[in-house]
Amino acid sequence: MSEVGSQKVFVPGLFERAKEVMFDVVLGELGLLDQLKVVGDEIRGTCPLCGGERSFSANPVKGVFNCFRCHKKKDVVDFVKFYRKVEPKQAAEWLVSLLPPVQDEADQQAEEGTVLSDSGLSAREVRLLQLMARACARYAGTIVSAIASEKMEAVAWRVVKEEIAKDFPDTAVPEE
């Protein structure tokens, strides 16, 4: 139950819904994402809990984190609990507040059914693709901001086109 004014409100599946929030979203909301690095499918760097250098890793795909220095590990709810120094229920409520509002169950199932049946992907696969898209966008933004001159931009674009052509030979890549 969460409190609204003086009333207590029951949130069904609070902890299950809280665990739906991806680590990159949580770290971004807490302002920690800039000091960590995305390495493969993990987010690594200095532990936000104990300050241990190169000891922290979070895996958004699996929904777990670990610090090799302070030995704290588990899921996104525990991370928020440790970081914000709150009870698990308060951490879960904060996490659920980051999720989009719940639609009517019938509307949501109809919408998900259409999207998933059209694509042939499961809900988890769709979430993973969304995570990868955010990571790619962040990576592309870093590359673009690092390129200072037009000459460097042309070289970088050529390299990107070569990589795309190598992995996806049937893809038409637009010119600059």
Can you describe what's shown?
The chain has 176 residues and is an alpha+beta fold. It folds into 2 domains: 10-98, Alpha-Beta Complex (DNA Primase, Chain A); 120-176, no CATH class. The protein contains 7 helices and 7 strands. The protein has helices spanning 14-18, 23-29, 76-84, 88-98, 105-119, 123-146, 150-167, and strands at 2-4, 7-9, 36-39, 42-45, 56-59, 64-67, 73-75. A hairpin with a 2-residue loop joins strand 3 (36-39) and strand 4.
Give me the secondary-structure topology.
Blueprint (H helix, E strand, L loop, with lengths): L1 E3 L2 E3 L4 H5 L4 H7 L6 E4 L2 E4 L10 E4 L4 E4 L5 E3 H9 L3 H11 L6 H15 L3 H24 L3 H18 L9
Antiparallel strand pairs: 1-2, 3-4, 4-5, 5-6, 6-7
Summarize the model shown:
This protein is of the alpha+beta class. 51% of the residues lie in helices and 14% in strands.
Keyword list:
single chain; 176 residues; alpha+beta; DNA Primase, Chain A; 2 domains; five-stranded antiparallel beta sheet; two-stranded antiparallel sheet; 7 strands; 51% helix; 14% strand
